[in-house]
């Protein structure tokens, strides 16, 4: 039996198994409540604790991976929003595109990307018109000065 301990772990008494099962269910409940309000840190902590009690629980491990992925996606989304609010549209667009690659249409990111592309294109056109206008005014002023 001792040779199996490294692979299977120490034997657990029946009462401890039942208590561990209850604790795991409780931690899963905490995690799901945290997920419901997008408290990724709280969800990850609870799921890690549950996984430490049942290292072979693939369902808990998968949920933990999912929660970590959601935390990363939320971080990217927040970064992109912050860049946009600070007037850095091109950088925000890049972050939103990165988010789309990682998370698909996370929180309607496809629509946000389309909107930003329109804004950047429109701003680019306005900037070009301003340059042309400035150039034309400068040329007319130069010609008038020569006359």
In short:
The protein is mainly α and 147 residues long. The chain has six helices and no strands.
Give the SSE layout:
Blueprint: H1 5-8, H2 14-36, H3 40-53, H4 58-85, H5 89-103, H6 109-146
Helix pairs in contact: 2-3, 3-4, 4-5, 5-6
Q: How would you describe the overall organization of this protein?
A:
There is one protein chain. The chain is mostly helical and 147 residues long. Helix content is 83%, strand content 0%. Helix 2 (14-36) runs antiparallel to helix 3, helix 4 (58-85) runs antiparallel to helix 5 (89-103) and helix 5 runs antiparallel to helix 6. The longest helix has 38 residues, at 109-146.
Globular, elongated, flat, extended or rod-shaped: what is the shape? rod-shaped
- How many angstroms does the end-to-end distance come to? 106 Å
Cα-based radius of gyration, to the nearest Å: 28 Å
DSSP strand tally: 0
**So how many helices?**
6
Percent of residues in helices comes to over 70%
Main β-sheet description: none
Please mark out the parts with pLDDT under 50 across 5 or more consecutive residues, or reply none.
none
Structural class: mainly alpha
Task: Give the DSSP E fraction (strand runs of 2 or more residues).
Answer: under 5%
Mean pLDDT: 84
Following the backbone from N to C, one meets helices and strands in this order, namely: HHHHHH
């Amino acid at each position: 039996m001792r040779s199996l301990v490294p692979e299977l772990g120490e034997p657990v008494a029946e009462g401890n198994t039942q208590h561990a099962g209850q604790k795991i269910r409780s931690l899963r409940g905490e995690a799901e409540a945290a997920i419901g309000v997008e408290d990724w840190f709280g969800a990850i902590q609870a799921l890690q604790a549950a996984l430490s009690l049942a290292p072979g629980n693939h369902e808990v491990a998968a949920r933990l991976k999912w929660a970590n992925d959601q935390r990363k996606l939320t971080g990217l989304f927040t970064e992109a929003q912050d860049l946009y609010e600070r007037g850095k549209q091109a950088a925000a667009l890049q972050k939103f595109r990165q988010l789309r690659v990682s998370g698909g249409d996370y929180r309607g990111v496809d629509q946000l990307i389309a909107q930003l592309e329109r804004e950047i294109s429109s701003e680019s056109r306005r900037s070009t018109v301003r340059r042309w206008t400035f150039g034309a005014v400068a040329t007319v002023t130069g010609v008038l000065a020569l006359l």
